[in-house]
């Protein structure tokens, strides 16, 4: 939903140390 992108934007800083593939795996889970 519309809240998903907001949540991603909030947790994005925690992903700075991860590569794109890991980011997508975490988001999809």
Automatic annotation (TrEMBL):
Top-level division of the source organism's lineage: Eukaryota
Gene3D superfamilies: BolA-like
Family annotation (InterPro entries): BolA-like_sf (IPR036065), Mt_Fe-S_assembly_factor (IPR052275)
This protein's GO CC annotations: mitochondrial matrix
Family to which this protein belongs: Belongs to the BolA/IbaG family.
UniProt-recorded name of the protein: Uncharacterized protein
